[in-house]
Amino acid sequence: MVDATKRRKTHxxxxxxxxxxxxLLKPVYKGKKITDEINTAQDxxxxxxxxxxxxxxxxxxxxxxxxxxxTDLKKIIKANQLILSDVDPEFYLKYVDIRVGKKSSSSTKxxxxxxxxxxLRDMTYSxxxxxxxxxxxxxxxxxxxxVEIGRMPIMLRSNKCILFDADESKMAKLNxxxxxxxxxxxxxxxxxxxxxxxxxxxxxxxVEADEKKNIVQASVTSxxxxxxxxxxxxxxxxxxxxKHNSIAEExxxxxxLKACGILSDLEIMQLVCGNDSSYQDLFAxxxxxxxxxxxxxxxxxxxxxxxxxxxxxxxxxxxxxEGIEAIATTVIAHLTVEALDFREKALYIAMMTRRVVMxxxxxxxIDDRDYVGNKRLELAGQLISLLxxxxxxxxxxxxxLSIDKVLKKPNRAMEYDALLSINVxxxxxxxxxxxxxxxxNWSLKRFKMERAGVTHVLSRLSYxxxxxxxxxxxxxxxxxxxxxxxxxxxxxxxxxxCTADTPEGEACGLVKNLALMTHITxxxxxxxxxxLCFVLGVEDITLIDSASLHLNYGVYLNGTLIGSIRLPIKxxxxxxxxxxxxxxxxxxxxxxxxxxxxxxxATDGGRICxxxxxxxxxxxxxxxxxxxxxLDGELDFDDFLKLGLVEYLDVNEENDSYIALYEKDVIPSMxxxxxxxxxxxxxxxxxxxxxxxxxxxxxxxxxxxxxxxIGAIAYNQFKRIDxxxxxxxxxxxxxxxxxxxxxxDYDKLPAGQNATxxxxxxSGYDIxxxxxxxxxxxxxxxxxxxxxxKTTTVLKRYxxxxxxxxxxxxxxxxxxxxxxxxxxxxxxxxxxGMRVKSGxxxxxxxxxxxxxxxxxxxxxxxxxxxxxxxxxYRGPEPSHIDQVMMSVSDNDxxxxxxxxxxxxxxxxxxxxSSRHGQKxxxxxxxxxxxxxxxxxGIVPDIIMNPHGFPSRMTVGKMIExxxxxxxxxxxxxxxxxxxxxxxxxxxxxxxxxxxxSYSGKDMLYSGITGECLxxxxxxxxxxxxxxxxxxxxxxxxRARGPRAVLTRQPTEGRSRDGGLRLGEMERxxxxxxxxxxxxxxxxxxxxxxxxxxVCDKCGLMGYSGWCTTCKSAENIIKMTIxxxxxxxxQELLSMNIAPRLxxxxxxxx
Amino acid sequence: xxxxxxLFVTEEEEEDRTQDRAADVEDESNDVDMIESExxxxxxxxxxxxxxxxxxxxxxxxxxxxDPVVEELPLYISGNDESLHVFQYANRPRLVGRKPAEHPFxxxxxxxxxxxxxxxxxxxxxxSFYNKEKAEADWNGVNIQTLKGVGVENDxxxxxxxxxxxxxxxxxxRVAQLKPxxxxxxDVNVTRKQEDAKRNPNPSSQRAQVVTMSVKxxxxxxQNRLTGSLLAHKVADEEANLELTWAEDTFExxxxxxVKETEGKILIASxxxxxxxxxxx
Lengths: 1149, 281
Hints:
Chain A has about 1150 residues and is of the alpha+beta class.
């Protein structure tokens, strides 16, 4: 009890510190006062902010990284702790401990360069990795603490980060945004996210069937720290074989089992089939296989397998030894046999075989690859862990080689100190980690695995796009494959993965997003759980005889059979009780499978799970008293877990449960209750008001567009110098919010504005979803945004002691700066606030002409010559210089960053969208006077064409308008939360009370004629987002310009000032029309016309009136052909093909 | 209790230190009794009761109504130097007809203490299902069946017997599943292969070959050590067998010694129930 009160006190303390969630946890919230009645059915949603407070939106990344740094690193060190020398048997070096960012002597963390400084100075935000080592020097054993072996990039806001547990004021001091979720890395100044990777679960049996080929196969991907391999048990002509990559042939299953020491056919039959006669009939043929091969003893079987092993070894092994090695370590590699007894292995293979037999007997007994319970998510921590172990092994290997090199020398003057050579290799780990994170290429030597595109640059287009990136899951499936299975929405995704948020097009359904309440587990210890199982009455598998193996339920720990249990239901209940009382980690899942007669316990990392309220005897365990305590700050989410009111269920365990959506639906047989149904959506889909009224693809479209909306990015947005940043000048909080919006703080960093919309036809410039914008609204700041673009210059130093310099500005005869240098200051850099036009210079850099020369030995004052290489501004519109930064980067070179700003108001063609997947471009900008107005004189900001509604069926948008309008009239912000929100009926009531039509329609007057419009117009505020696609960035035309060197045709693309291509299809049209002269002009004259000298005699090309083949100028004829054609002829010539031109006059003279 | 479902379990006493001493084996009829008396407690619960003796039956409270406590028996734990090995005879039915099967006669027992490898020989009944001619012709006149098994360590397994309404628990050191081991086939195979090799020698081995000689240093790095299972097999192959004598009818004597040993000792729980449960999970 004492403990409990203490805990509570600390929580109260925490609340004071954490301002971000304070609003939500305040006793007065959403009009509800401390004395108000608590309604469990409605107020249980308060668990959600409590959950997010503990877990946060990117907590899965942070948890995973923390686990890696605190636990996994130590495991890796332990697994690779010894370095021995081949030369000196006495020598050893042992790693005792490892720490990141903290010395053993000091109690505080090391000082790290703050993340924002790293961003600005193009540095890596990292902390030193210290190891404690113990090694021999001569006869002595020496301990050494805090040896730095490299630097580890640190995930922002993880427990090694200086932002960990920082409050708002500390964040502000460090120039960080308190709303920034963290979870990414800063490598060489760029923010990098390691996306969550989806994979098939490891070390689990998956049974699949190919009905056409009549094949059933059970496969298991074994993964250990050292190796990764896949073992199959497959059927072939009704017989069962074991298949493995390093065994040349498929081995009959009976032979494999005999090799594992199961010699009698009776026992094989017992292990695989148990007492089931139908399985026995199916399996019996396999027993013949081994006697056909004359294999009766274990030795014979091992030799049979040993002869077929095809691994390359340095060490020569006998055939028998090869067989032993294959069975002990190669097959099912995650169960490595260290001793003589292969029983565990035999049981595993027998279980795989049993699953195959079961699927042969009943084709429904197969597993679904796409089922979320069979998937594991690999997070940043696990990926870095794989990489680090690889690098650490390489580091140790290099280290060992250099030790051996020294120790090999027969007579050394002094005793060798191994510590001296450790620092030589430390750069390997640092640069290896940095390179992998900055390029996204994960190459693991020990698995011979290369993976590209693991990391991405954190998109800072808007707060939502950054957040959306942190919850994104990328799949390992190939995008090009045309399969529907992996892309389909799985029922098991419910509540775990967002049902709406997936991209359109090729990655559709392969890239997913986490839902709001999802948690991803980290690895947990297996051993204590195994012990616990035995205590709870599980009989150890090593003691069970084969005959009674299948009489009872088997207990599987992470896919491996550990025992059997007579009373599975009692066992599962007891286990769950222990978990609910906190004796077992809350993330360990247990569920039973009656088809397989199995109880599965999972402790592995990467499982997706979510919290649910426990229901017992038809009653939710969370009562109003608990919620009162939660609101008063006496309890937090973890207390709910500890009290056994809430528990985490993973996908598999969900199948063992009966979950009520709402409290009113609870019936006695139910086991759980949802905390809040709207958590099936993720953070990005949570922005949509009334999404449950929309056609589902519209929500998906909005999820894609929400990430392109321009808005506020972070509180520190004006301190950031990013390559390209879009900011909205006057962003507004939406009139119709959702609970998700509040939870993810979108209301604090919004991306859009509340526009008054009239749904009507106007001017004809609104076809195809085009919008009519009000000019005065634009003048008032609607849709105004700014772009900020960075230019980086490094002042290089060269080997000959010369260096790039910044020149001053050049002045004309009047002492005024010349036009190009108008925006420069005396230091040769643009002055902050100056306008730069296209063609003007804003960094006046010069490089030495002799930088490649040898250094001047005399060092006489020879004036170095410089060549000007200024940075010139190019763009259709001028920009302003916003910031200029001069600093020194990691490698001591001067670094200059100039930020250019451009303020933009909406123009024709700029793209806007509401929050319902309804995008449109600005079709016309109309003067306010000409726009329709209502009785109060309100003029719309946007007129939207009503044709946008019927086919799109975005009813949510209409309700948003009504709720928004009611909110405006009522002076309140209304809610459009999914499966809830402000009721339409209430909103209509407010409208009627305020003297408006219940339907949201108003009577409007034409701005042009002043007449009353013939119909009532649907009129009210809708939240509109300005999307990043703007005309200014896309407009492009060219009359003449650069040409490609090789073909002399105009270059391609806007960025290269390229031409506008008359493509193949356009060409076809012109041909069909017969406009041959147009064709000639487009394809040759305006493109790559070239005058060649053709020799009429030999048909080859000459030059300057001379045919080199005929050695004469006699028959030379000048003609114009495309340069590309000339190039083709020459390329053909180079391939020993002579294209000869035969010339004729078309018109006879 | 599926462990014992179709099996004999024979406790055998074996002293590691005085290795030449005869091993005692109890009569199998006693043995079956013993198992049945143990039937009420699962193996894991046996473990619990060791430390929980004083608290008694608290975990059965909920089941009390449909499963009333009939009798409370005091527990005794021995566990000094009885080195108890349990043999599980896989592939042998527990019952022959209605009667429990008899424990076979054992002619020889071998043990490799380092590898925990048991081998026992059972003479074959050459009266029935035995083809004497074939045995003589093909298999060097085999007349014994060898059972082989690896002793597996266990944590918290106890053998128990009831005497005078008192339960005596004896910790089990290792459990071995004994399975048939056809050494005669492997032996014959080896000789056959050798003969084959002699009769038609490999053409490649006949050809003259240039022999390159090189000196290998003792601690050559390329000379890898065997690890894992290979090492275990090598150790087992190289280890000498310990020939043990099979002794029958020692169960009573064994019982007496256990009773004697545990007499007068009172076990006191060293920790509270909460601590115990905390220890477990």
